[in-house]
């Protein structure tokens, strides 16, 4: 037993030395990086980040730019309006890259709008913006789609007959149908089984992502992707849901191919199929993988952000009834009770417009955003941010931008 015990102790000492050496090498090379809290070996500052509901606010005592560690990943954080503006606007090209994370690459494979990079990202982003704008001004504008869906929502609210109800599902359905009409060409009935399944998948993903245990599993996946593929956990639920989204979009793509009219695109999928056909004889970023991922991203982003904003808006107006009363008065004065609101009313409703903007400023819509990267070594203040992956997040009225390497 003694030789085995000595061997075990020796191995523990060796592993500990290697871990501390790894941490020391990173710390010793950080002379031009901003200061930050002391990080634990292996886990870094993950426990400190996860223990605060406001995430990174406690670290702001280090100033508008500081360094933390998420696991072994070194993160430079920008905190506050001025420095974020300097970085993302003043140095927009340098900060326009997208970071690399195995957890996202597994589902997106670097395709689509959100997780692509370089020229691929520029082409897909330009295409998406152009077509969303065109569909907004086509036979049925986005404003008309929203007004139409609002009528369905109001009818659903009336059917509650004054009984208490949870508005979350109602808001999710109505908001999702607006983006569905643009991406898939039509809205869904609220009771449609496939539509209900999609909304449930979104809700399940949202619950999984709010769990600290999910954050740990995702972080471990970034370090040990091959191993974590075989280990059960909440990350497997996210992968499973991603496959379900993909299956649904591929079904819609098949339906669109069978009824496609190249002279009259009905939605985003039609437009993408036409673009693919135009570029089929050249090396192109427009392929099935990019189409599926872009469609999923538009659907998820178009549903989650807006419905969450509306939900928080209701909560805030409930908390401040005096503000709700003033908004109500302005609506009655400008719009009345006999018609739907429209964009032309906005200029005549300064108070309501201000409240909407304040709600967007007030809430923490996306606590931790997707990775962002600098395209070259960047000098910011008296520090240097190397050409690495990074992540951007906005919390309440404060702005944070991450740059990890």
TrEMBL record:
Annotated GO MF terms: arachidonate epoxygenase activity; heme binding; iron ion binding; oxidoreductase activity, acting on paired donors, with incorporation or reduction of molecular oxygen, reduced flavin or flavoprotein as one donor, and incorporation of one atom of oxygen
Enzyme class: oxidoreductase
InterPro entries, A to Z: Cyt_P450, Cyt_P450_E_grp-I, Cyt_P450_sf, Cytochrome_P450_fam2
Membrane-crossing residue ranges in chain numbering: 6-24
Subcellular location: Endoplasmic reticulum membrane; Microsome membrane
Organism in which the protein naturally occurs: Chrysemys picta bellii (Western painted turtle)
Family listed: Belongs to the cytochrome P450 family.
Membrane topology: Peripheral membrane protein
Protein EC: 1.14.14.1
Protein name: unspecific monooxygenase
Main location: endoplasmic reticulum
SUPFAM superfamilies referenced in this protein's UniProt entry, alphabetically: Cytochrome P450
Cofactor(s) the protein needs: heme
GO terms classed as biological process: epoxygenase P450 pathway; xenobiotic metabolic process
Entry keyword set: Endoplasmic reticulum, Heme, Iron, Membrane, Metal-binding, Microsome, Monooxygenase, Oxidoreductase, Transmembrane, Transmembrane helix
Pfam families cross-referenced by the UniProt entry: p450 (PF00067)
GO annotations of cellular component type: endoplasmic reticulum membrane
